[in-house]
Design brief:
By secondary structure, the chain is an alpha/beta fold. It is 31% helix and 15% strand. The chain has helices at residues 5-10, 30-36, 40-44, 52-66, 81-95, 132-139, 175-187, 237-243, 248-251; strands at residues 19-21, 74-79, 108-114, 150-157, 159-160, 193-194, 209-214, 255-258. It is globular, with a radius of gyration of 18 Å. It starts with a helix and ends with a strand.
Length: 261
């Protein structure tokens, strides 16, 4: 696929056997709603991510970590919601012993988030994760497992949100209008700037290496200008490796675990 993150990683020395992609289809995200629908805490907006709405996702991350061999380690690379969910999975997993959520924190060398809404909206704005993101930041604030686990947060600045004044109900949503709607939900301010989906102000956490990339968009719909594009990846990839003082060759038999292709 043009602009594929996996292809860009392979061109920088990662072997196919070192790259593991979480098996999540778009339709899988419907589980958030139908699993959450049966949980009273979800409706109250006080459901942590280890409750049913997001627990299935945390379990998939944990399964990947638990499958590592004794001498294998991992970088968790999370795009969009996969970024804050990686933080949640490690946070809750490190507290668990012998469960489907358990994660050996010593196996996680770094958590890298790409275009992730890491911070919850202000109190007056409804948390669309029904409490999961807000609780994650309360329980595991900032670079919670640093310095042993490194944190890198990456966000693009490409689009300033602008409220769209439609002349007709059939008028298509503009790029700036879509950004306005998304930013407003994520941080309460639709007129701020970000990658077209996630605003810059929501992406970085305290204690992380914070990278703000100009002209970078949220998704592979902009194949030459998103986080995984060949022209963009070098703006964060080498910094990620510097954080853990390694190269792809030295990282073997370690793995990079991506939640996006």
């Amino acid at each position: 696929m043009e602009g594929s993150l996996v292809s860009s990683l392979q061109r920088r020395g990662w072997e196919e056997s070192q790259i593991d992609v979480l098996p999540v289809k778009r339709s899988d995200w419907l589980q958030v709603f139908w699993r959450g629908a049966l949980d009273l805490e979800f409706w109250k907006g006080t459901a942590p991510p280890n409750r049913p709405a997001f627990r299935w996702y945390l379990e998939r991350i944990s399964n990947k970590v638990q499958a590592l061999q004794e001498n294998e380690y991992m970088i968790l690379l999370g795009h969009s919601a996969g970024g804050w969910l990686a933080r949640a999975a490690v946070g809750y997993g490190a507290q668990e012993e012998q469960s489907e959520l358990s994660i050996d924190i010593e196996k996680i060398k770094a958590i890298v988030t790409l275009g992730a809404p890491n911070l919850p909206p202000p109190p007056q704005v409804m948390d669309m994760t029904r409490g999961a993101l807000r609780i994650t930041n309360k329980e595991f604030p900032g670079a919670f497992h640093a310095p042993d686990t490194k944190y890198v947060t990456v966000i693009g600045e490409a689009i300033q949100g602008k409220k769209q004044e439609r002349k007709s109900p059939l008028e298509p949503t503009s790029v700036t209008g879509f950004a306005y709607n998304s930013y407003e939900v994520v941080c309460g301010d639709g007129t701020t700037i970000g990658d077209g989906v996630v605003p810059t102000c929501s992406a970085h956490v305290d204690g992380a290496t914070q990278l703000t990339l100009q002209g970078v968009f949220h998704s592979i719909n902009a194949p030459d200008q998103w986080y995984g594009a060949d022209k963009v990846i070098d703006e964060w990839h080498d910094i990620m490796l510097d954080e853990i003082a390694t190269t792809p060759a030295k990282f073997d038999p370690m793995k990079i675990f991506s939640q996006s292709r």
